[in-house]
Amino acid sequence: MTLESVCPSCGESSYGVCERCLARGRTIAAMPRFLSIQVCPTCSDHFFKGRWMNEDTNHAIANAVEEALKIDVEEAAFTIVLDQISPTIIHARIEINVSEAEGPHESFDVDVRVNRVACDRCSRISGGYYESKVQIRADHRTPERAELERALEITARTIDLTLKEDRLAFIAKTIWLREGLDLYIGTVKAAKRIVRTLLKEMGGNFSDSAQLIGRRDGKDVYRVTFVVRLPEFPTGAIVSSQQRVYEICSTTSTKNAVDLETGHRTALSAKDLRNAELVGTRSDARRTVLVAIDADEVHLLDPETYITLTIKKPPHIRKEDEGKEIRVVKTQEGVFILP
Length: 339
Prior knowledge:
Elements: H1 19-24, E1 29-30, E2 34-39, E3 46-48, E4 51-53, H2 57-68, E5 70-71, E6 76-84, E7 89-98, E8 106-116, H3 120-126, E9 132-138, H4 145-162, E10 171-177, E11 180-185, H5 188-202, E12 205-216, E13 219-230, E14 237-241, E15 244-248, E16 257-259, E17 265-266, H6 270-274, E18 277-281, E19 286-293, E20 297-301, E21 308-312, E22 325-331, E23 334-337
């Protein structure tokens, strides 16, 4: 006769005490009764494992509990139920389950104290700290308000993207000036990225200079100033160059202008632009009526004198445009229809 080995505790087949009964008979986890976390009162980031993290208070408590919880089994899951006792005390109920047993196997009650401490980023912002300055200007002109607002939007967007790798990236101060805009930036790394993005999206050029302001950890610390100069002729500018009239259609592309007589997109070199003359902008265009269209010419009303004018037909004008309203610019070289 073959004897079957059973668990002396529950009677299930087993060589000695089964794993379930062993689990029931021992402590599988340990947890301190009290915990504390640091949360920034301004941005709500919390301090964890030596650095500030951009997560809310509930995530901060979960991180603190998971760090403090000591579990002896490999496969276990735990749940946390939070109950706010006061503005600075949160009660946490932790229930632990193991795969070999049914229902909660261990439970703990923990009081978590929330200490309000300003993070490094908010401390620097409130103290007016900055490492770099980005000055936005324009070549041989005063930048328009719309250009500066776009530059500020690009800067804010770039800061948001940079925060993932540089949490000390921030705009410490914004100063509007008659000649442009001054932005005070938290780190030089963030300022360099802002400059690259501004040049990519708005064109222009930049220069930089550094000033020694002290030493930190045995190294020289410099404050770097970047001067971004937007192009002399922004998008929408109407310029005269070599007795032809162009509309600037891009400040970042090689083919940066449209010949208003032929309608063809072309490339104006840096030399062409230096010698060009501003004769208007797209916003200065006047509305008038396209009276008639011939094979090579169009007839339109002068927007000021209402006298019928005849000019060369641009390639974008079609016969079905006859009688429609169009936008034109008047220059010393003549009247041109905007595409």
